[in-house]
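To whoever is on call:

I kicked off a structure prediction for a single chain this morning and the downstream step that reads the tokens threw a length-mismatch warning. I double-checked the sequence; it's 107 residues and nothing unusual in it as far as I can see. Pasting both halves so you can look.
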Amino acid sequence: MKRMQKLLLTLASVTALVAQAEPAIFKGADLKLGAKLIAENKCSACHAQKAGGDGSAIYKPKGRINTPGLLRGMVEQCNTELNLGLFPEEVNAVAAVLNRDHYKFKD
């Protein structure tokens, strides 16, 4: 019984740490929606045209996008320039997915 309680406490601690790792700006973001929007809007294809290869070179966590807010702002810039018509919560969802997959910013 004590072993199970210890395991549950450890699991709760790990869950809390993971929740803290997410920047506040992305809390509650719909990651499934973000991934869907990235695919539907062919973001990777556009980035491949701009950066070459598979387009992943455009994501430079140590480059000019160095905060969660700047990442969200860059997604909003793409939204505006490409006239994608994304709502603010959709922009946030896309930025949250990019953070999860590439940038890994933490609060």
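Update from on-call: the warning came from a stale cache, not from the record. Cleared it. Sanity check on the structure: Residues 14-19 have pLDDT under 50 and may be disordered.
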